Amino acid sequence: MEPQHSPRRSREKSRRWLLAVLPGAACVLFLLGLFPHLVPPANAQGRPDATPSSSSSAPVSSATEATAAPGISVEREPSPTPSPTPAETPWYLRLVNQDHPLPRDFTVELADIPGGRFDARAAEALSQMLSAMEAQGLSPVVCSSFRTWEDQETLHQNKIDRLLGEGYSPKEAATEASRWVVPAGASEHQLGLAVDLVSAGYQMLVEEQENTPEQQWLMENCATYGFILRYPKDKTDITGVGYEPWHYRYVGREAAQAIWEQGICLEEYEDMQ
Ligand SMILES: [Zn+2]
Predict the structure, then answer these.
(1) Does the annotation count 270 as an active-site position?
(2) Exactly one of 109, 207, 244, 261 is catalytic; which is it?
(3) Which side of the chain, N or C, has fewer Cβ within a 10 Å radius?
(4) Which one-letter DSSP state was computed for residue 77?
C-alpha cells in the first residue's frame, strides 16, 4: 500500500511510480477484460505480474502494432458518411457511438496524462478528479484513454478473431464484438474524452469493478468534475454497449450533473436538448 498521508512531494513520487508501473499491468487486464471468458477465474483474481520494465511495451501497444488477421469480414464497419456534429453542439457534448461515428480524419489536440493522452481542454478536469481521489486515499489507475483509429481497429478485429476462434459465425462475431469493442470510428476513446479507470487493487474490466472503493467514489462524485459513467447497467439497450463500471466520459459539469441527477445516459440527454 502507498502511504496515505505522506507530504505532497512524496505522494507525487509514489504516484509517478505507480503510474509508471501500473498502466502496463492495467492494460494486460484491460485486454483480458475484453475477453473475460478466456481467463480462468482463478487467474482473474490474481495480482498482475506484468514486467514493469517499460510501460511503453504494454500489451495494448503490442496489440496496436500487431497485424490484424486479413480476410475477416466485418459487417458493422462505421458508416462511410459519418454524421457531422451540429454546429451548435459544444465539443464536450459530441455524441460518438455506432450511429454517430467519428470521421476517419478526426483530430483533436491532446495532452499527456498519467497513463495516456486526453483532450487537452478536459485534461485538467481529469487531473483534478484523480487528485481528489488520491487525497481520499484512493488509488485510481488510467487503463485506457485516447486511442487512434488504428488502435481501435486492432482492438475490434482482435475481439472478432477471438470470437471466431470460439466458433462464432463471422456475422455473430462481428455483432458480439461490437457490444464490447466498438468498430473504429464509433469509440469515444478516439474522441479523447473517455477514460477507463480501475482500482490499483483490482485491475479487472469486469462487472465486479463496480464494488471497488474507487468506483464507488467515482459513481458518486465524477459529475462534480464533469464526468459521467457512460455505459450504465440499465441503459445498455440505448447505448448499445455493455455495462462498463470503469468507462468515464467528460461532458462538462452542467451536463454531468443533469445526467447524474436524472439517472439518464448521454443519448437520452442529447435527445432532450
Ligand atoms: Zn472505455
Answers:
(1) no
(2) 244
(3) N
(4) P
